[in-house]
Specification:
The complex is a heterodimer of chains A (115) and B (112). Chain A is mostly beta strands and 115 residues long. Chain A contains no helices and 13 strands. The model of chain A has no long low-confidence stretch (mean pLDDT 92). Chain B is mostly beta strands and 112 residues long. Chain B is built from no helices and eleven strands. In chain B, a hairpin with a 4-residue loop joins β7 and β8. The model of chain B has no long low-confidence stretch (mean pLDDT 93). Classes of the chains: A mainly beta (115), B mainly beta (112). Chains A and B meet through β5 and β12 of A and β4 and β5 of B.
């Protein structure tokens, strides 16, 4: 099983609909992140969480919300989807491995299309 | 906050040639610099990283160099192979590892 699992892998939804993207991890990391990837724009941070009671906005949080249900679960919601939220969404975790901090572990991504 | 710039945005090389991707950063507090490879349809994967206490690190055909004074770091891939074709991202963070700041990515195409 993957260390970071995202569901669904692909989703097409209509404008105005509410949609939730889910992320779960088996890394045991405290820190979890949601990124959005658009062509030519790299990876932009939406929200991040350092533990269950900690939620922080990233650089592009408008139109999104998150929930950290447990250490291993971090979900991203689009309350009312709009076409310019069509993108590839990645969940990532970060933490201490073998006594050192390392770069993110990413999930495989969710491709979201809003029509 | 930190600003990471990455060049070039696209790079095409012949199989067997070397490829170099360069990144600059703005925050002198940054001290950890990972590189990620993203293959089509997959999430980015960490391929090599460097911490500020060293100037160079190698792992088989890939190497990363860091110049703290100039605030730039580079990824070097030697003897490129078609399977090296992917999008590569650089990133920077400080010792807290709170947030990673990413470059905009380089699409590497290795022609057989």
């Amino acid at each position: 099983d993957a260390d970071v699992t995202q569901t669904p892998r692909n989703r097409i939804t209509k404008t105005g609909k509410r949609i939730m993207l889910e992320c779960s991890q088996t890394k045991g990391h405290d820190r979890m992140y949601w990124y959005r990837q658009d062509p030519g724009l790299g990876l932009r941070l939406i929200y991040y969480s350092f533990d269950v009671k900690d939620i922080n906005k990233g650089e592009i949080s408008d139109g999104y919300s998150v929930s950290r249900q447990a250490q291993a679960k971090f979900s991203l919601s689009l309350e009312s989807a709009i076409p310019n939220q069509t993108a590839l969404y990645f969940c990532a975790t970060s933490g201490n491995d073998r006594g050192r901090n390392y770069g993110y572990t990413f999930g495989s991504g969710t491709r979201l299309t809003v029509v | 906050g930190e600003n990471v710039e990455q060049h070039p945005s696209t790079l095409s090389v012949q199989e067997g040639d070397s490829a170099v991707i360069k990144c600059t950063y703005s925050d002198s507090a940054s001290n950890y610099f990972p590189w990620y490879k993203q293959e089509l349809g997959k999430g980015p994967q960490l391929i090599i990283d460097i911490r500020s206490n060293v100037g160079e690190k190698k792992d088989q055909r890939i190497a990363v160099t860091l110049n703290k004074t100039a605030k730039h770091f580079s990824l070097h891939i030697t003897e490129t192979q078609p399977e090296d074709s992917a999008v590569y991202f650089c990133a920077a963070t400080d010792y807290n590892f709170n947030k990673f700041y990413f470059g905009s990515g380089t699409k590497l195409n290795v022609k057989p």
